[in-house]
Every structure is written in C-alpha cells, then in structure tokens.
C-alpha cells in the first residue's frame, strides 16, 4: 500500500511547531469560545443586573472626620515629654475605652437594637469598628466615624472628640491632685520631723550655749575656735587636746560676752505652716485670675465679680491660717526651756577651770612622751565628756541640716504641684484641643453606583469568558483539521467556501 500521501500530510501538520502552533491553538480556542456568545452574553447581563440591583438596594455610608492636636501647657520642671508613639497609643486607648464608648452609646442612643439583641459588649465592639483613630504627626491626630445618617455621623464624631478632651482633662486634674496630696502629706511628715530635731538641737544649745558659736560659720569668734586650738597645741594629731582647747575657747568667749547664744528655731506647727503656704498660693492664683478677667471683660462683668469674691475669700482664709499659725508658734515658744544667764556663767567658769587643768595635764603627758605618741582614745572623764558633747553637737546639727534640705526640696516640689494643679483647673496644662471640627458629609463613601456597575460588568464578563473557554476546551466536536488529526491521518483537505461566516458555525 502506498502511504506517501498520508506521510506528506502528516509531515505538513508536524511542521507547525513551537510558538506559532501554540498561538494558533490559542486563537482557535478563543474563536470557539466566541461561538458560545449567547450564554456569555446572558451571564454578563445577569451580572450587570445584579450589580444595578445591589447599588439601588445598598444603603450608602458617610464618614465625618475631626482633627485634634495635643498642646503642651505650663510646666514647672524640665522633664521630657512623652514620646510621640506612646502619646498616640495613650490617646487612642482613652478614646476607645469601653466605658467611654458605652457612655456615648447611651448619650446618642445609637446601636440600641444591637445592644438589646447581643449585649453591651457586642454593641461597643461594633461601635469601635466604625471608629478610626490615626496619627497625622507627632502631636496631631484624626478621629473619624462612618454611619448611615450624615447628621448623626457628624454629631458622633464631634462627641468622640469632646469625650477625648474631657477624659484627658480629667486625667490631668486627677494626676495633679494626687501628686499635690502626696507631697502635702510628705511635707507635713517632714515638717514634724524637722520640728522634733530643731527642738532637740535647741535643748542641747540651752544646756550648752557655748556650742552656739559654731552655729554661725561667719562669726569671728566661732570661726577662730578651731584655728586657735590648733595654733596653741602645735600638735594637730592629738585630737583629744584639740577638742579640749576648742571647748575652753568656747567657754572663754561666752564668759567675755563676745557672742550671745542664738535664738532657738521657730517652733511652729508644720500642718498650720503648710496651710498658710497653701492659702498664699490660692490667693495668688485667685488674684491672677481676677487680673486676667478684668483685662478681658472689665469691672462689672459677672465673671469678674465672681473672681473678686474668690479673692476676698482667699484673703480671709489666709488671715485665719496666719492667726492659727501665730498662736501655735507662741504656744510652742512658751514650752521651750528657759535659759538662766547667771547660772550658765557660773557653770562656764567652773567648766573653764576644769578644762584648763585638763589641758595642762594633757600637755605634760605629751611633753613627757614625745617619742611615743599619746593615744587619742585614752583620756580623763572630762576629755571624754567634751568629745561626747562635740559628737552630739555634730549629730544634731547634721540631722537638722538634712531635715531642712529635705523640707526645702519638698516645699519646692509642693509649689510646683500646686502650680500644675492650678494650671490644670484653669486650662493651662497639657490638653487636647480641636484643630478642625467635624464636618457634615455630603457624599457617600465609595464605591458609588457607577463604580458598582463597572465592577459588576467586569466580574460578570470575566466569569463569562472563563466559562466560554472551558466549554471550548471540553468540546469534543470536530471543527477543523487540527481536531481531525488527533483521530486519524489526513489524506486531503477541501478548502472551505467563502459564503458562510465564522459566527454561523457550530
């Protein structure tokens, strides 16, 4: 059998290799898919109709936005402010707190149906999902809310911003109040401790007035006590002898009337003194508020009259506090130990004689044992007494100095806390203010009706084309010679006539 015609035909088909054959096959599939145009057109029409119906039945949503800024206020210290990230997180937590959102829900009567059906927690979560808090810069933030009613959306957005402002202000006031109360308690405690230490020091000076010379370092006699003792001995290593000569110098100066004993400390009540300080601060704050309102409104404005009344009340309160503190100081001063000058002079004369005798004895011991130093720890009863007095004097002085430093530091911190509390109440502290109020939305959120129609057309057209291509691939009917060659060899090809169009086949 002659198989050359079949071999020639197969060779012609096999020569179509590579990209040309694949392209031809793809074009064939697209051509066959287009033959299925009635079903594809029906799918496109159904998709567009569904998109049109959804765009008509869909309820539009609106979004309103407000811009708030975190403004730093009056600060009495140089502490660094919060980092921008922590500030944004803190404000977001304050805004989206469940308690705050629940108050807004009840105030505006929104999400009530969901609250009845699913509970308060689910209603708050739905409300929270419709709120968007975003940082625009380090201290500027936006608050937006989306909903169905434009006017309600604007109202909710404005309420959220005001809620954040109120919560921040409340937190600032509470922090300032807590800090002030803590410092006030610490100051009262430190004042009581200082009073006890000053009374102990005053009693010591009443019993040993010669040590009052050391209380003033700039006093000529007091400053020369240590240098005179060292100059007389010539042996600064003998501490016991130096202490004896310092004590003798104190007694001699007092007997000669060189320096009177200083007055005792002011034995006021720390609580009453703190009340006086607080009353003065309140008066200063009220006077500052009165001056500012007078400059802004005039003398007959109701706010100015109210500020004047607050100044009068602060003045009356300050007078009462000063009277109570003065009475306490007088009462405490009367209980202080009295000093008898003559008895002190007699005691000092006797003490000076004993000291001079002890100094002479000590010097003789030093002269007789020049090769072997005398132990500073060994001495008579008088020497031990003088060393003990100096040690006690140094301890009492150090305790009073440390207590005064602590009290001064607490006074400064308490003053700062009072200023910060006053600035928080007056609106001069760190606060959140509205930079751009919430607007009334006029257009619904995208996508609009036209966009929905385009999306519906695009999706339905893509689905129709995929289905048409699948039908073309799965179709087992024979249309062209490439379909036939898969079944049997081709012996000859009859050209198609040009009278029939491609879309009429199938």
Describe the structure.
- The chain has 3 domains: 85 residues, no CATH class; 117 residues, no CATH class; 230 residues, no CATH class.
- It contains 16 helices and 4 strands.
- Strand 2 and strand 3 form a beta hairpin.
- It is elongated and about 155 Å long.
- It is mainly α and 506 residues long.
What tags apply to this protein structure?
506 residues; 68% helix; elongated; mainly alpha; 3 domains; disordered C terminus
Q: What topology does this entry show?
A:
Blueprint: H1 4-14, H2 18-34, H3 37-57, E1 62-71, H4 84-95, H5 98-108, H6 112-118, H7 120-129, E2 131-135, E3 140-147, H8 150-207, H9 220-233, H10 239-255, H11 270-297, H12 302-334, H13 341-368, H14 381-426, E4 431-436, H15 449-474, H16 481-484
Antiparallel strand pairs: 1-3, 1-4, 2-3
Helix pairs in contact: 2-15, 3-15, 5-7, 5-8, 6-7, 8-14, 9-10, 10-13, 10-14, 11-12
